[in-house]
């Protein structure tokens, strides 16, 4: 790896009311590495713009929320490096994260995309070893998180893709507003461009679930798009009984006793159920929730 980092890799982050937490990410990026922040019509867009200017990042502001995948695609169009590193705004790099990622990419030229090790705030690991879009026979055991290796799907919170592979498959599916877009991209990259790999030595600290504010309304919004994406992605990847399985799962969540003690859980369960019900016969996952 003779070329400097800033000529090989760019970081792309999508923000949505994320100004409180994105500064830690910006501070952790090595000097000179290109960073693009794509803001999806946040209330705090000007605060995020100021942070981007302070840390030398490029800032794009959307006048409406276009969804995670579309915003990632926008960011990718702004850079010309060999690798695209998609990071959630509540992530933070370690000093050697990018070096380990690029070393792994150079050692495995057959691989199309990579995940880092994701360290949660309490020091434990988050590892995506399964997906609703693949059969259980492909799910990995928990021990897979402790070593390098091929994986069936990638987590979009810290995803490195070869630009050529990302462009070959058309990037993130714009029909998916939020959730399962990383699973969908992973399966298309694996099928068309090469295997997916997990890089244990490349670490990212991640405050999971804190990329946006925590409220009943936010929980409902996320649940709505999660339900729509679940049905759309299942159909796209030819899962048998995709709608009926999702509907049954949503029904069980709706009657969970936990909903009695948490307004956020009630909102999440109710709008997840409504979203799946509304997705019957739909061919996309970007329909707006009923209160918009």
Automatic annotation (TrEMBL):
Family matches, as CDD domains: GT_2_like_c (cd04186)
Entry protein name: Glycosyltransferase family 2 protein
Residue ranges of every copy of the Glycosyltransferase 2-like domain listed in the record: 10-169
Species of the source: Leisingera daeponensis
């Amino acid at each position: 790896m003779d070329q400097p980092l800033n000529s090989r890799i760019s970081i792309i982050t999508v923000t949505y009311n994320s100004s409180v937490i994105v500064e830690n990410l910006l501070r952790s990026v090595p000097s000179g590495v290109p960073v693009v922040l794509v803001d999806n019509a946040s209330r705090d867009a000007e605060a995020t713009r100021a942070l981007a200017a302070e840390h030398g990042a490029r800032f794009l502001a959307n006048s409406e929320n276009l969804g995670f995948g579309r915003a990632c695609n926008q960011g990718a169009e702004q850079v010309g490096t060999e690798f695209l590193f998609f990071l959630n705004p509540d992530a933070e790099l370690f000093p050697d994260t990018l070096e380990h990622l690029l070393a792994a990419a150079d050692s495995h030229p057959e691989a199309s995309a990579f995940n880092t090790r994701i360290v949660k705030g309490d020091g434990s690991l988050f590892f995506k070893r399964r997906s609703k879009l693949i059969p259980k026979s492909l799910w990995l055991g928990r021990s897979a998180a402790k070593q390098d290796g091929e994986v069936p799907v990638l987590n979009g919170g810290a995803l490195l893709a070869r630009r050529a592979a990302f462009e070959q498959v058309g990037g993130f599916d714009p029909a998916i507003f939020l959730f399962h877009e990383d699973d969908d991209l992973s399966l298309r990259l694996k099928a068309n461009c090469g295997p997916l790999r997990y890089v244990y030595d490349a670490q990212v600290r991640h405050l999971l679930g804190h990329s946006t504010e925590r409220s009943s309304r936010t929980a409902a919004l996320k649940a709505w798009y999660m339900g729509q994406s679940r049905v759309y992605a299942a159909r796209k990847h030819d899962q048998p009984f995709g709608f009926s399985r999702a509907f049954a799962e949503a029904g069980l969540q709706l009657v969970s006793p936990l909903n009695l003690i948490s307004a956020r859980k009630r909102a999440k369960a109710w709008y997840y159920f409504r979203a799946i019900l509304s997705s019957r016969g739909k061919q996309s996952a970007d329909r707006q929730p009923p209160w918009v």
